[in-house]
Amino acid sequence: MLIFIGAGYSRRHLTQEALESLKSVEKIYVDTYTSIYEDGFNWLREVNPSAEIVFAKRRDLEGEGINRIVEEAKDGNIAILCAGDPFTATTHDAIRVEALKSNVSVKVVTGISVVNLVHSRIGLQAYRFGKIVTLVYPDSFKPYSVIETIYDNLGRNLHTLILLDLRLEEGLAMSIPEAIDILMELDEKQQLMNQISIGVARLGWSSEVIRAGRLIELKRYSYPPPPHSLIIAARLHPIELESLRYIAGLTITG
Ligand SMILES: C[S@@+](CC[C@H](N)C(=O)[O-])C[C@H]1O[C@@H](n2cnc3c(N)ncnc32)[C@H](O)[C@@H]1O
To answer: Are 38 and 126 contained in the same domain?
Structure first.
């Protein structure tokens, strides 16, 4: 059996189902490249002292790595453990499909994802979000499509969650100030800088920081190291506006 386990972002987020599943397997692949976990999974050995633990890089969970995992899951119980949720804003679908094609049983243990954290912790209503985007470093191409999506969402009066580039194997993790500089450079209309936005750093961690203000103003704050995300708000409902004042220190009145 192959079990995909979402761990949320801290040991505190582990569900009973995640704990039971972790205890039931003989090998655990820990996805170390799609996100960053508060305590680096340092509790894993305590939860399952006998399992083989592989801190997996991208190549272990893609391409040839997939075939190896599926072969192992034919004869044993294997887990793939991820920060957040294994199928939210991250794709492990190729492994799931290969396992299903090979008649390997698959189980998914849902975890608290960054999308859940954003929806529940900052005071914006979940059904007022449009398409999610990921802002990448503009090295090989300029990600103008992110700007198009933000304006498209704003045109429909929907908020945009912007996930920020993480290339952990290259030692790169985009911060909120870096993301604002990139957005300013790409935004030919130059309107986004005045849009009410929310910067979220380490959501769900004990060092969580949530700040709201005009996009350009969010550069002034200090944040703990990534993971960071940004939200560009559409027109705010009065309750959302009030929430942002109390939760995120928004001082703009509307
Ligand atoms: C590819 S997504 C991983 C999503 C993961 N599968 C999940 O369900 O949460 C990684 C991006 O989410 C954002 N992110 C992840 N954890 C975060 C956190 N605790 N606080 C703020 N942003 C976070 C960052 O922008 C990061 O680059």
So the answer is: no
Q: Is residue 12 part of a domain?
A: yes
204 lines ligand 1 (CB under 6 A): yes
Q: Give the separation between CA 10 and CA 152, rounded to whole angstroms.
A: 34
Tokens in use for 8?
Answer: 């949320």
pTM: 0.95
pLDDT band for 24, please (50, 70, 90 cuts): very high
> What ipTM did this prediction achieve?
0.99
pLDDT of 254 strictly over 80: no
Show the tokens assigned to 119: 């929806």
145 backbone dihedrals φ, ψ, rounded to 5° = -65, -25
Angle, CA 207 vertex, CA 203 and CA 211 arms, to 5°? 60
C-alpha of residue 160 to centroid of ligand 1, in Å? 14
Ligand 1 mutation pick, 30, 34, 35, 211, max ligand atoms within 8 A of CB: 35
Ligand 1 closest atom vs CA 164: 25
Cβ proximity of 1 and 106 under 8 Å: yes
Query: According to the model, what pLDDT value does residue 39 have?
Result: 82
In a domain, 151, yes or no: yes
